[in-house]
Specification:
101 residues; three-stranded antiparallel sheet; 2 helices; alpha+beta; single chain
Length: 101
């Protein structure tokens, strides 16, 4: 997963190995959250498990001030929904363990 200069999100295809494609709905969901919260998401780690993308990030103000260091989000590839998770949320923990193998 990477962020381009225009803040669009790209990832390796979940269907075909090695193919890079634009995650339009994911980008829209992140931008919508940023607009509604008036914060910027600084994505640090991404874990894809089954049909969910787990995101570890920091939250920053528009002025460049760090608001929250350890923030967890989950993007559901089926429902196209982004939600903020609590640090010890069972789903977040499951993604962490599943990716640690």
């Amino acid at each position: 997963m990477l962020t381009s200069g225009n803040q669009s999100l790209y990832s390796c295809s979940l269907d075909e190995k090695g193919k890079l494609h634009y995650e339009e709905e994911f980008t829209k969901a992140v931008k919508k959250y940023e607009q509604e919260s008036q914060l910027e998401i600084d994505i640090e780690t991404v874990r894809v498990v089954e049909d969910k993308i787990g995101i570890y990030a920091g939250l920053w103000s528009a002025e460049g001030e760090e608001i929250e260091e350890d923030t967890y989000f989950c993007y559901d590839l089926v429902t196209k929904q982004l939600k903020k998770e609590e640090k010890n949320d069972p789903e977040m923990f499951y993604r962490y363990i599943k990716n640690s193998k």
